[in-house]
Amino acid sequence: MDASSPGDREFVVEALAGSEPVRLRLEGLLTIKSSEAIWSELRSKLRNAEVPAELDLAGVTTCDGAGAALLLALRARAREAGAEIVFTGANERVARSLALYGCPTDSPPLRDLDRKVGFLVQVGESTFAIISIAKQALAFLGDFAIALRAAILNPRSVNWRELVHLCERTGADAVPIVLMINFLIGAIMGLQSADQLERFGASIFVADLVGLSIVRELGPLMTAIIVAGRTGAAFAAELGTMRVSEEVDALETLGLDPQRFLVFPRLIALILVMPLLVLLADFVGCLGGLFVALLALDLTMVAYTTELAHALDLWDVGGGLVKGVVFAGVITLVACQKGLATRGGAEGVGISTTSAVVSILFSLVALDAVFTIVFNLFGI
Predict the structure, then answer these.
(1) Measured between alpha carbons, how far is residue 373 from residues 130, 367, 379 in Å?
(2) DSSP class of 6
(3) What CATH homologous superfamily does 11-102 map to?
(4) pLDDT digit string (tens) for 134-188?
């Protein structure tokens, strides 16, 4: 026996019979405490790891991270020199340590490696990404149209039981934030215009400015933005989580259409509550203007409300309600489409939720611009 150390050492390196390949037997503890001595002895017996060898690890009782790294580094040096070192006889724990620190190169990386790409490549990848998103949106709209026809023919296939709960979540729970934001918007509009109108002796027209701005534009738009950040994000996150946890697949396996079971109740609930939220937003926005008129412009409540009644007509309010209904449809459809298209676990849910909110906000502003242009063209 060629013992590497006296009997009180924690490890033994023994050369077995035969020379090609070199055969060594290791016993004892391969730990960080003895790693330096083991490294020196192994390299000396393997002639700096330049010859093929077989290491019998049957006698190794403990192998920590340092020991595993030592053996793997020795094998890597042998491979660089054109030789090969084979580990045999390792028990389950030692084999697990070697596998853990081995980092096999044939397994795919968990994330894409950083790479430098040119400008044209980035443009091309972005173009393909946009085309893919457009295809997903069109496919979702196609599925929605098919499901809508099936729901009309068979209304009982829609998950009506969730409707009341969804109306409470999307409508009643949103009332406080909608009231507060729109009241402040009305007050801000009044404060911004009060000084200029007072200079020209036209303080009374603060009612016209606040009323028309709130009822036609800011009331529906600000309410939709609040709902998008609150409800749209919730819809996208809920459906995204259901998708990555395979709950949507389970529904399809049971023969339930995700459109009718998940999308329709949310769409109907938001369409029902959105006009009510817009009406509340219009009312409190005008109250914000009244608050400023009473405190900063010394107007009376009767004068403000009378001028407001002259400035507004029924279509001003109706146009805002039409916007609210359309905005509700856009918020629900975009949020649900992003949620059902989620891939990639928790990270994918976050990406889908962010994408849904951004897409909804862009769509709302674009639609509001279209409404404004159309109303002006028809003199509404």
Answers:
(1) 27, 10, 10
(2) -
(3) STAS domain (3.30.750.24)
(4) 898 898 889 889 988 988 888 888 888 889 999 999 988 999 999 999 999 999 9
